[in-house]
Amino acid sequence: MNFKIPSLSLFCFVVAYAAPPPPIGTFSIVARDSSTGELGVAVQSKLVAVGAVVSFAQANVGAIASQAWGNPSYGPQGLRLLAQGIRPKEVILALTSKDPRRDHRQLAILGKDGNASLHTGNQCFPWAGGKTALNYAVQGNILTGEEVILAMSTAFEKTTGSLAERMIESLHAGQNAGGDKRGRQSAALLVVRKGWGYGGFNDRFRDLRVDDHPEPIKELERIYKIHRSTFPRPDKKLD
Predict the structure, then answer these.
(1) Tally of CB atoms within 10 A around 98
(2) Which domain holds residue 66?
(3) DSSP code for 167
């Protein structure tokens, strides 16, 4: 039987014109609890399984959310740079300066000291933007308007409780203010602290995802409450 291997030129044509992934119309928060040292990311989007693409965090290093035409390589690369002591603003510059699609990217980076920085490319679909303050940053694109970001910020600052609870409340506020103008589909929560993961073997204290649901933030909160009951904060001797 004769079998012909497709020519390299045809293969290159298929790769070059493959459809790009869908944009991640999203609102997210990266945040730090100054009393416990926890770092985290919470996000909601009209995209299936948003937590698999946007959220990155490492204990005692920082938290990163990469969205819009998200570049998942920003997560591990950015955490490596933060671990070297490079500040978030400089990390964003290092990541975006050589990226030909940087004008389509949105990126939030929070350092272990609570210092935060944002990048919203000028080609992100409107409304797109964000806000930084000590210990957190909120950002979003394809939103109904700036009011989404402002509501998220206010909710995080005024809510008490654990870092996870404050971030979930921030997502609720963003959704109530209009959220992603295309609708809702998935949400995720990631909280890290050294030695607080399962059995004390890693730093992933809360790593929860709702990949496809009509009310993903409410479902995320429901799952969080189950997780909190099953895995309360470790004994203080592990702090």
Answers:
(1) 7
(2) 22-238
(3) H
Distance CA 173, CA 184 (A): 14
Distance of CA 112 to the CA centre of its chain: 16
Q: How confident is the model at residue 1 (pLDDT cuts 50, 70, 90)?
A: very low
Domain-embedded: residue 198: yes
Give the per-residue pLDDT at 181: 92
Of 86-90, 192-196, 232-236, the poorest mean pLDDT is in: 232-236
Give domain status of residue 232, yes or no.
yes
Query: Could you tell me how far CA 172 lies from the centroid of its own chain?
Result: 15
- What contacts 42, CB < 8 A, 6 or more positions away? 28, 29, 31, 164, 167, 168, 170, 171, 187, 188, 189, 190
DSSP code, position 24: B
Asked whether residue 57 is domain-assigned, the answer is: yes
| E-strand stretches of 86-235 | 105-111, 116-120, 129-133, 136-140, 186-192, 204-210
Q: Distance between CA atoms of 196 and 174, rounded to whole angstroms? A: 28
**Token output for 125:** 């679909």
DSSP 3-state assignment of 219? helix
Work out how many domains the chain is built from and give that number: 1
- Lowest-confidence segment of 2-6, 22-26, 34-38, 169-173 by average pLDDT: 2-6
In a domain, 15, yes or no: no
